Amino acid sequence: MDRALTQNPQAPTEKARWHSWIKQYPAAPIIVVLLVAFSTLSPYFLTAGNIESVLIANSVIMLGAIGMTMVFLTGGIDLSISTVISASAVIAGIVMAQTDSISLGIATALATGLAFGALNGFLIGYCKLNPFITTMGTQLVARGIAFLLSQGIAVKGTPFGLMDFSFAVVLGLPAVSIITLVITMLFIVLLGYTSWGREVLLLGSNRSAARYSGINTARTELSVYLLAGGLAGIAGLISIINLGNAIPGVGDTLLLIIIGGVVLGGTSMTGGEGSVMRTVLGVAILAILTSGLNLLGIPFYDQLIIQGVLIFVGNGLAQHLSRRR
Amino acid sequence: MFTKQPIASLSVLGLAKAFSGKTVVKDVSFSLYPGEIVALVGENGAGKSTTKNMLCGLLPPSEGEIQVAGQTVTVVDGKQHGIGAVHQELSLFSSLSVAQNICISDLPGKPGRIDWPACRQIAEQQLAQLGVDVDVNQRVENLGAGKQQIVEIAKALLHASKVLILDEPTTSLTAPERERLFTLMRRLKKQGVAIIFISHFMDEIYQMSDKFICLRDGRQVGSGNIADTPRRELEEMMVGRTLDEAKVTLTPPSTELAVQVERLSSHYFHDISFSIRRGEVLGIAGLMGAGRTEVAETLFGLRPFEGRLLVDGEQMIKPNVRQMKQRGVCYLTEDRRRNGLFGVRSVKENLSAAKLSRFVQRRVKGMGFRGEASQAQEWVEQLNISVPSIDEAVSSLSGGNQQKVLLGRWLATLPRVCILDEPTKGVDIGAKFEIHKKIAALAASGVAVLLVSSDLPELLDLSHRILVMRTGHIVGEFAREDFDAVEIISLAASSAFEKQRA
Amino acid sequence: MSLKHRLSAVNWLPIAAATLVACILLSLLSSSFMSYTNLQSVLVQASVTAIMAIGMTFIIVTAGIDISVGAILFFTSSLFAKLMMDTGSYTLAFACALLCATVLGALNGVLIIKYKITPLITTLATYTMYRGMAIHLTGAQNIPVPREMGFLGNGKLLSIPVPILLLAVVLAVGLYLFNATRFGLYARAIGNSAQSARESNLPVNKVTVFAYALGGITTGIAALILLARVGGLQSGIGIGIEFTVIAAVVLGGTKLSGGDGTIVGSVIGAIFLVLIDNGLNLMNASPYVYDIVKGSVLLIAVVIDKVSVTRQQQHLLNQRAARIRATG
Amino acid sequence: KLGLSVDQLFESRVGVLNAIKSEAQKQGFEIIEVVADGDPQAQNSQIQSLVTQKVDAILVCAVDQNTIERALLGAKRKGIPIVAFDRALPDSRAVDAFVGPDSITDGYLAGQYTAQQLAQIDGNIQVLELLGALNDQNGIDRSKGFNDAIAELPNVEVIAMPTDWDSARALAATQNAFQANPDIKAVFAATDTHIPSVETVLYDIAKLHPVGSDQHVVVTGVNGSNDGYQATLRGNADGIVVMDLHTTGVTAVQLAAALINGESVELNNVIPGNFYTTSNIEANKANIWGAQ
Ligand SMILES: Nc1ncnc2c1ncn2[C@@H]1O[C@H](COP(=O)(O)OP(=O)(O)OP(=O)(O)O)[C@@H](O)[C@H]1O
Ligand SMILES: Nc1ncnc2c1ncn2[C@@H]1O[C@H](COP(=O)(O)OP(=O)(O)OP(=O)(O)O)[C@@H](O)[C@H]1O
Ligand SMILES: [Mg+2]
Ligand SMILES: [Mg+2]
Predict the structure, then answer these.
(1) Cα of C228 to nearest chain D Cα, Å
(2) Does B276 share its domain with B423?
(3) Mean pLDDT of chain A
(4) Cα of B380 to ligand 3 centre, how many Å?
(5) Cα gap B295→B297, rounded to integer Å
(6) pLDDT tens digit string along B445-489?
């Protein structure tokens, strides 16, 4: 009888496991291909210096992308992440320039991010406003605040302690990458192994069903935007460490890169499906791609074209791999 | 060929379907002649819907041949071949109007200029045939589940000139609407339309069909004339084993009140009062749109209300779902797709969704889900859910199995008050009996059960008491010894008759 | 159906109300606002985004999105300017530009249905591609267009500015397509549920490609107007406009989740967005407060929208409750 | 090998890049070019990748003058000379030489001319200023220079409108500004690529009168693009400050070559812009990088 099927589920075969793994991480094969290609094509690609600079340059993007991942999991979108990064950097930069206190700077960066996150979360979670327009509104407000407070130019006077930190190396990795790594792991655990994380996924999968199951959808949603804001705050601070100064436009160009990284990793925009680990891989694709194409000396506009084409080729590849048995 | 029979409207030979290597339908062969109604029967997950999907061109068969009116076709095109289907899960467009939904596959007028008045007229005609009164300009999302089902049927009828496939069309319908549907099926039959009828209600199958095809685990295990096959035999052919005597025994309830409802009113109902005792099964009968679902949802804290609601003697003021859950109340929704299932998530996660904290590992508070998988596996076995693995996405399950998952989710919370809205919607006979036994056992253990169902025999079998609702009011109450199917239906329906007369 | 009932289905009413409020406020704050010429110039300014928003509405009701329209605009303008410069033939340049915009739009649709990647990521990829192609084409050079082109940007026919006329034409065609044709209905149906659409045998692929192609051609028209108005190709023209366009559509009452939307709403949404800038310009606001004000106004607009929708629903519910009480 | 790190691609930047590339070719240098597309973090890592590739010198135009210091110091430690072009890095400890415009003076030249033209008018004079991006130092400096010069007139009110270097926004802003203040007597565009937009608006409201006419609105700009050149030639614009992109590019490579050879060079090499008016612009066509 076929009931046996349910009672002793077949031990997954090697092939089936590979199959489901690829499904889980559609970005992985693309990364492998890119790594192999670039390291053969450019002798500089796998040098310590290059790896280090790629890690540092993508730390801000990674933190923003984690926030965006959570928001996407609920089926929402947060366009304000990029400019909240800028606003937090500027406000923290000003506070640090005035007080020369790093801890106060960290606190303000975090507080700024959380404040914007709370605003988004309240409006979207409790007032049930449309996430796209709402965060577009806060995006502009955050950008405006960043420009108003800094008058458009970099805020100078970053404490030397923070500058030194940018050169610090822990376990052979730049300190900012270690911070990013720790936060990433934290969120992998938070989303994958806590009831809060599960509630976020369920909420995104079917909001109405989540309500019918007794999940406090408004509060969960608020917490997601709040955390995304907090991460943007930290990202703003990291941008100061990386760049030495707080600049008002630092996050503005990152929005599409962040969204691209998240979706490339395989987190769906409609909610309920995805993970931080996928986002790590998605961001990695973009990071490897830009670094590799730069090292190969490909002209900027051709890089753009190649990036676009590779997204389709890569996705085709991933789909092909997951379809084959 | 020396047959005197007319050409088959539709015939299939060795039809098979596999999803990523797993065969779910195999060796299905039959012919369907004009003017005959063939019942497609089988347990949940037997492959009925999958077969239907291949017959109406939604899924390409992995193997086998389909002939329409004697011609072999590679892909079935519903409109061209005159094949219409009512799908198990509603396939309506919620933000379009009823008229637009009904006509969408065959719009009147030119492609560049739809004739909207004609469209409305067609829709009104279709609905009039089914004898229901629905505003065709209304958006479908504003209709209750029952009326949506009617719209779905009206839509399929429109271009089913040769073959009509009905996949569990009656799950959301109450007796009068079923009767109208059957009348219509008889008329179509007379007109020479061949009908494939999928249902888990044996009464209906014996009432309506001429022949049957029985599937078990994706294989065709029998076919023949309904008239020559005793009901018992067909049932056993479906499940592949001998069935026990299907009779649940009810234990008398205690006197302790679990739920009291006093003068409850909302936008959907008015002045509702009743109480449920521990160990009692209280049934609510009514036509679709009577407001039963709204009462049930209100009791679960999903909707605002006026009046008093007491659980265990404690008044609930503006309760929310969480508070009701803490009091041990659970609610099984009638609309599993919209309000129940987390489609892309796994069976395991769907089973644990209502009681996440139950699985939380204690060592680090709030972290990890130790025991989730084994619990889920246990429920899968208890409810006999047919699923390749508990990590499978719940949306790939068959309809009846999805319903079981949902039921499992709430039974897993070990409720003290159980509100069940159409609990056996789409569940096969064997499993339905198991669920009935479970409900009876639940009541026997002191759980108060509120049972909302459009399946009157189910209500009569399981309830201690039945309330009858009509347009938002309670219009009658029957104790078990006074149960009378005819009287209950006429009480529930009288408003509909009034409306027709007016 | 009662009038109230009918009105509740008109989902562009909230934004229309917000626009009206904004107009009243602005006419109080700035004496020059209510002049005929200013209102006309508001419409002219809105024409580019409004035309694009009409195309985008079709895409969004299919539950899609097109991030690449800004890049299509950039590429189309580049192609047009380049062809004008190299060949001097208006016919050739116009034909190629509009054709190319349509093809690029349609390509988005084709890629979406071929690779089954979400529309966002597909159009994000084509956004970088089209942008790269545009820079490749012109080498990031600015190219002037002939003065006669200016007719498209600030010429007048029957004393109505040409961009407004073009907007009216596109609006009329859009309304017709949306409300009277199979394509319009199918687009909404697909946005509601692609699964159901397939079950109902709708030509999902064709409709999808056509919707994106419409997004492309409206972008092409907008590109030509913009090019005519700014007098020549500038590197990066149009990049970033996609968010304004999407915002106009969403403000207009179209759901990003698809299935439901209005063309008129999108146009009003575009006008509303231009009003904010216009008001700030008229009031001589400090350049630094622009974004803050714009953001706040957007937030207020969604709140107003929400409140009015909720009130309408509440009203319908009360009506129902009264009916039920009456039957008792 | 020369590393070339650029903030973004647009017309005038490409003008300098072309000059750099042709000069580099003449001197036998190979060029490795990276474009940051406006992202300071990207530029940082790109500069580091240039260091990794062991270039002999780095020519850099910064996205933000204050934020690539870290990467530049890294290069400096490897002994790679650094030449900043177009955008000054005034506080940098890493830069060995700068070559580029003096944006304050450029703005000042345009302002000075405008002030002269408006000097005879009595009463309150309104002047429209189309700002560049609010976070671009060159834009900020041009504005500063222009305002310094115009402030010499006692009765001037400057109406500043943000444009973010975007012509469409410049167009809308000009249109709205003329609605609110129909008496605007002069327009200053931080980049002369916005001048065609200004012409569109003036034409719309029937105020497009050539230089010399009574009702002429004074229009000036900075840059030297073909847009500005043509407008000035037509007489719709009074004049433009033209940056000498060719000299900038050539000088940048020469400075780099000198530094590689260990020669000491001047730290600040300002290439002044020239103000050409309708009367003399045609004669100077050869000096205008954008003119076609
Ligand atoms: N898209 C799919 N991917 C994988 N498996 C599927 C898919 N659709 C159906 N199945 C599997 O095929 C089997 C048959 O499903 P089907 O829906 O045909 O059953 P059914 O007979 O209609 O049952 P029910 O009475 O419960 O509706 C089930 O085991 C189901 O899990
Ligand atoms: N989502 C909804 N939006 C608006 N009205 C609704 C909605 N759902 C149901 N209704 C209306 O509420 C009334 C009662 O709904 P419903 O059909 O759920 O009642 P019911 O007694 O549970 O019937 P059923 O037999 O269908 O379960 C109907 O008139 C229906 O039109
Ligand atoms: Mg089924
Ligand atoms: Mg119900």
Answers:
(1) 9
(2) yes
(3) 85
(4) 18
(5) 5
(6) 989 999 998 888 889 888 999 999 988 888 889 998 888 888 888
Query: For residue A238, how many C-alpha atoms fall within 13 Å in the half-sphere facing its CB?
Result: 30
Q: What is the CATH number of the domain that holds B204?
A: 3.40.50.300
Its domain, for residue A290, covers 30-319
For C235, the closest of D9, D177, D203 (CB atoms) is D9
Chain C contacts of D61, Cβ < 8 Å? none
Judge whether B148 lies within some domain. yes
Q: Tell me which of B20, B24, B51, B387 to substitute to probe ligand 1's pocket, judged by most ligand atoms within 8 Å of the beta carbon.
A: B24
pTM (2 decimals)? Answer: 0.87
CA distance C213 to C62: 13
Residue range of the domain that includes B406: 257-359+367-501
C303 touches chain D (CB under 8 A): no
Do A104 and A90 meet the contact criterion of CB atoms below 8 Å apart?
no
Complex prediction ipTM: 0.85
**CATH number of the domain where residue A116 is located:** 1.10.3470
Same domain, B232 and B315: no
Q: Is D31 within 8 Å of D24 (Cβ atoms)?
A: yes
Q: Tokens at residue A292, please? A: 């590799």
Q: Give domain status of residue A23, yes or no.
A: no
Contact of D290 with chain C, judged by CB distance below 8 Å, is answered with yes
Tell whether C31 is within 8 A of chain B (Cβ): no
Q: Is C63 exposed, middle or buried (0-12, 13-18, 19+ CB in 10 A)?
A: buried
Total tally of structural domains belonging to chain B: 2
Residue ranges of domains in chain C:
35-319
Interface test with D, best of C234, C244, C274, C288 (most D CBs within 10 A): C234
- Determine the Cα–Cα distance for residues D45 and D42; give it in Å rounded to an integer: 5
CA distance B264 to B220: 51
CA C187 – CA C263 distance, rounded (Å): 13
Q: Pinpoint the alpha helices (H) of B37-132.
A: 48-55, 78-81, 98-103, 116-130
Residue ranges with strand state E in B200-268 = 211-216, 219-225, 257-265
- Are both B195 and B281 inside the same structural domain? no
Whether A314 maps to a domain, the answer reads: yes
- Confirm or reject: Cβ of B284 under 6 Å from ligand 2: no
Structural domain contains residue B252:
no
Size of interface C-D (CB pairs under 8 A): 106
Distance from CA of D128 to the nearest CA of A (A): 20
B216 & B270 share domain: no
pLDDT band at B282 (very low <50, low <70, confident <90, very high): very high
Distance CA B403, CA C206 (A): 35
Ligand 1 pocket member B494 (CB < 6 A): no
Question: Do B333 and B427 belong together in one domain?
Answer: yes
CB-based contact B70:B244 (threshold 8 Å): no
Tell if the CB–CB gap between C32 and D196 is shorter than 8 Å.
no
Mean pLDDT of B154-183: 82
- Which A residues 74-133 touch D at CB under 8 Å? none
Task: Check whether residue B414 and residue B486 sit in a common domain.
Answer: yes
Residue B111 to residue C181, Cβ atoms within 8 A: yes
Residue B240 falls in which region: left (phi positive, over 0), alpha (psi -120 to 50) or beta: left
- Cβ of residue B40 lying under 6 Å from some atom of ligand 1: no
Query: How many degrees, rounded to 5, is the angle at CA A228 between CA A223 and CA A234?
Result: 125
**Which of A153, A169, A240, A241 is best to mutate for the D interface (most D CBs within 10 A)?**
A153
Please give the Cα distance from D232 to D215 (Å, whole number): 17
Answer yes or no: are the C-beta atoms of B388 and A9 closer than 8 Å.
Answer: yes
Yes or no: domain C35-319 corresponds to CATH 1.10.3470: yes
In a domain, B67, yes or no: yes
Structurally, how many domains does chain A consist of? 1
Q: What is the pLDDT of residues B82-102, one digit of tens each?
A: 888 888 777 888 888 888 888
